[in-house]
Amino acid sequence: MNTQNSDLNGVLEDRQFIHQITDRDGLAALTAGGPVTGYIGFDCTAPSLHVGSLVQIMMLRHMQQCGHKPIVLMGGGTTKIGDPSGRDETRQLLDDDGIAANMAGIKKVFSNFLKFGNGPSDAVMVNNADWLDDLEYIPFLREYGSHMSVNRMMGFESVKLRLDRQQNLSFLEFNYMVLQAYDFLELSRRMDCVLQLGGSDQWGNIVSGIDLARRLDSKTLYGLTSPLITTSSGAKMGKTASGAVWLDAGQVTPYDYWQFWRSVDDADVGRFLRLFTDLPLDEIARLESLEGSEVNAAKVILATQATTLCHGADAASAAEGTAQKTFAYGAAADGLPTFHLDNEKLAAGIPAFEVVVASGFAKSNGEARKLIRGGGVRINDVVVGDESQAVTGDDLNSDGQVKLSVGKKRHALGII
After folding, report:
1. Same-domain check for residues 290 and 154
2. Residues 64 and 183 grouped into a single domain
3. 269 and 159, same structural domain?
4. Which of 292, 310, 329 is the last residue in one of the domains?
5. How far is the C-alpha of 17 from the C-alpha of 275, rounded, in Å?
6. Among 55-69, 79-93, 215-229, which stretch is predicted with the lowest mean pLDDT?
7. Nearest alpha-carbon partner for 393 in 347, 327, 350
8. Does residue 244 surpass a pLDDT of 90?
9. 304-336 pLDDT, tens per residue?
10. How confident is the model at residue 18 (pLDDT cuts 50, 70, 90)?
11. CA 349 to CA 147: how far, in whole Å?
12. Do residues 91 and 139 share a domain?
């Protein structure tokens, strides 16, 4: 990845990443003076990150492209508590084996977005369990807890929202802010890290770390948060009717990932091109000005650019080719998601609603029946008129496949 010296604040501002900065002018002056080190933490609560984490990943990417050094902090220690920010209920606690397995899965994601190594702007990955696991609780509280104001912690939005909704906030979770503040202090001391980035729900945690470093080390640190990213309809980014849009190809195929971006609302195209691709801003402005059916061309570019970053150019090109063949010609293209059809049941005939459930496009027989009654299901491009219509071996093509379509944009191949 080529790096260049440029205005980090300006790049993030122009691409609409910035929600709050603790000291805008101070950070601008610091980054203009040479490479700085900054980090974002990612807890290991699942075996992959999803699109909801992509804003943070892209901020680290832009930081590196501007010539600065990003740290990916894996929350091997803090995951044992669970971040209460932005949540109405306590996270399920994981054991050490579960955390380690999730961490291994998450690590694979970052190599697609960042260049790791030993150079001045090469990314590094560290694990906060390296210092949190060996803390002695009482000495830790005496040394660091005395500098954390409960009054101030209670005033942060992430805590107030939980309490205002009368949702339980355990004492274990309440410690999370102290530990994240300590993470920033440790990274400052160990790696001269001066900047923490994160989502807007992390503002209180970030400010607490800045305050702790000022009190203990008389050091000035900086914080920058991104806005909560929602779609134009107000839906949370990264969630669909079929579940989370994971960044790992083993959980969401490159084709499905491409389709997610191809299917965004027209109103979101320009903003998502800024946030989730490396396209130049003048090209984004041109694409954003397209109207009518031409917007679809911009969506294809968004989908291919975003998929290239996450899964590579070959996977993105294959996904685009599969989509073009599927949509333009109505064919059953290689590369579509697949699901299994039982050969013995197929001989007797499988009710269409069961095929829809087997594909994963419906979670229950009732949901599948409703889709069919609404005229939204096709077998081999023919609308299914009866929810109990039998799918048999006669529906297989020469490759032993049945093409299932739900709506205009969800397609899969049933195979035996």
Report:
1. no
2. yes
3. no
4. 329
5. 7
6. 79-93
7. 347
8. no
9. 999 999 999 999 999 898 877 765 444 555 567
10. very high
11. 70
12. yes
Cα 29 to chain centroid, rounded: 30
Taken in order 47, 95, 129, 178, is the CA torsion positive or negative? Answer: positive
pLDDT digits (tens, 9 = 90+) for 348-386: 899 999 999 988 888 899 999 999 998 889 888 888 988
Residue-level pLDDT at 57: 97
Is 1 within the bounds of a domain? Answer: no
User: For residue 232, which phi and psi values (nearest 5 degrees)?
Assistant: -65, -20
Instruction: Tell me the CATH number at 20.
Output: 3.40.50.620
Among 226, 242, 267, where does a domain finish? 226
| Residue 73: C-alpha distances to residues 13, 101, 185 (Å) | 24, 16, 13
Instruction: Give the residue carrying structure tokens 């949702």.
Output: 167
Q: What is the DSSP string of 146-191?
A: GGS-HHHHHHSHHHHHHHHTT----HHHHTHHHHHHHHHHHHHHHH
In a domain, 180, yes or no: yes
Q: Give the pair of three-digit tokens for residue 321.
A: 């080719």
What is the tally of structural domains in the chain?
3
Same domain assignment for residues 312 and 389? no
User: What are phi and psi for residue 95, nearest 5 degrees?
Assistant: -85, 175
What H or E segment, with its residue span, contains residue 383?
strand 382-383
Angle of helix 157-164 relative to helix 203-217, nearest 10 degrees, comes to: 130
For residue 123, what are the domain limits?
8-226
d(CA 400, CA 393) in angstroms, rounded, equals: 8
Q: Is 65 in the same domain as 147?
A: yes
